[in-house]
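Troubleshooting log. The previous structure file for this entry was overwritten by mistake, so regenerating from the original sequence record. Sequence copied from the archived sheet and checked twice against the printout by T.R.
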Amino acid sequence: MQRFAQLIDQLNNTTKTNDKRDALVSYLNDVPDADKVWLIALFTGRRPKRIINSTILSEWCMEVAGIVPWLFYESYHTVGDLAETMSLILPPPEQVQNVATLDDTMRQMKQLQTADEPTKKEFVTNH
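Regenerated output below.
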């Protein structure tokens, strides 16, 4: 999963087509086949059904970050993108806890489809 996150960071931090291509080629050369399949699925919009709605994610973000709702929503209004707002508000992880592959993480997320909310919260806030 760390390698996938690194790829996303590389893709987001360049506008050069050749750099993007090189990052993708490097990723595809480094990861197991199952991760390659997930990359294609995610990049072509064939991702699994969302397991948590954005309202609940926002609540969990505020709880983890320890901020009040008005500040969260003002930040969201300024940033304009919910995922980016959350990434800017949440504290960085204290240490890398998970060395799972993209395939491992996506399989775990698919299993959470039928889980209760506390189980989903535990997964999201600890990964």
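The mean pLDDT is 90. Archived copy saved in two places this time.
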